[in-house]
């Protein structure tokens, strides 16, 4: 009797599993039904300025790709040296969300330095040719599909940006000396070049004796 019950339970389970499986909507990836993203917004030439590090260098735009069915697609904006077939490509931005991407001068210059380092190339202040594309992926098990390729000639900068600054003479530094450009006194910097200056200053017990902010070293 127990054996009959066990067999009945197993059969019922198989019937339920079979019924559930048949009710599922199956989707299949078909490469011929894919619509890649279309990349735009890239000019022919750019000259990156270290003193405008926080300004937007390039405003990348692209249309949303389609996989032929409802799927979560990861879009990666790639940059590579022109003529290298995207070997050692650098990913500038990656997201499953819709939208564009604005890269700052500082970030773009940093990515360029990383790319040249992968080729063990020495960087000089001169124009180089780069290529950009969108790589779209729906799964690690399926090859990515790609947008059109856009090209641009970009001149990078070398060294750190020179941020806007103001001087902070005061009693803590004996009010400095205008003849030596307040070298003894602290500076405040505007990292975003937005008129907001920041910095750490140790006044000790001399804050009460006064200090000033001067846009010039005089």
Features:
2 helices, 3-stranded antiparallel sheet, 218 residues, Immunoglobulin-like, 2 domains, alpha+beta
Structural class: alpha+beta
Give the strand content.
25-35%
Describe the sheet with the most strands: 6 strands, mixed
Look at the structure and give the mean pLDDT: 83
Question: Roughly how many Å apart are the termini?
Answer: 104 Å
Number of helices: 2
What oligomeric state best describes the polypeptide chains here? single chain
Radius of gyration: 30 Å
Which CATH architecture of the largest domain is right?
Sandwich
Strand segment count? 11
Give the uncertain stretches in residue-range form.
Answer: none
Shape: elongated
Order of helices and strands: HEEEEEEHEEEEE
Number of domains as seen in the coordinates: 2
Text of the CATH class of the largest domain:
Mainly Beta
Percentage of residues in helical conformation: 10-25%
Organism: Bacteroides vicugnae
Domain SusE outer membrane protein: 23-125
Protein name: SusE domain-containing protein
InterPro entries: SusE
């Amino acid at each position: 009797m127990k054996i009959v019950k066990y067999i009945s339970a197993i059969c019922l389970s198989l019937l339920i599993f079979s019924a559930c499986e048949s009710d599922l909507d199956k989707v299949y990836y078909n490469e011929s039904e894919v619509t890649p993203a279309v990349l735009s917004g890239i000019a022919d030439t750019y000259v990156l300025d270290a003193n405008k590090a926080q300004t937007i260098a390039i405003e990348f735009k692209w249309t949303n790709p389609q996989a032929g069915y409802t799927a979560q697609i990861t879009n990666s904006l790639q940059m590579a040296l022109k003529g290298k077939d995207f070997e050692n490509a650098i990913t500038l931005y990656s997201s499953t969300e819709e939208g564009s991407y604005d890269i700052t001068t500082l970030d773009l210059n940093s990515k360029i330095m990383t790319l040249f380092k992968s080729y063990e190339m020495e960087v000089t202040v001169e124009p180089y040719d780069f290529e950009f594309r969108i790589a779209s992926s729906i799964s690690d098990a399926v090859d990515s599909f790609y947008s059109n390729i856009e090209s641009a000639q970009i001149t990078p900068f070398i060294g750190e940006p020179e941020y806007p600054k103001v001087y902070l003479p005061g009693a803590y530094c004996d009010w400095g000396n205008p003849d030596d450009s307040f070298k003894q006194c602290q500076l405040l910097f505007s990292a975003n070049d937005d008129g907001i200056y920041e910095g750490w200053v140790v006044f000790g017990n001399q804050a009460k004796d006064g200090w000033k902010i001067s846009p010039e070293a005089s």
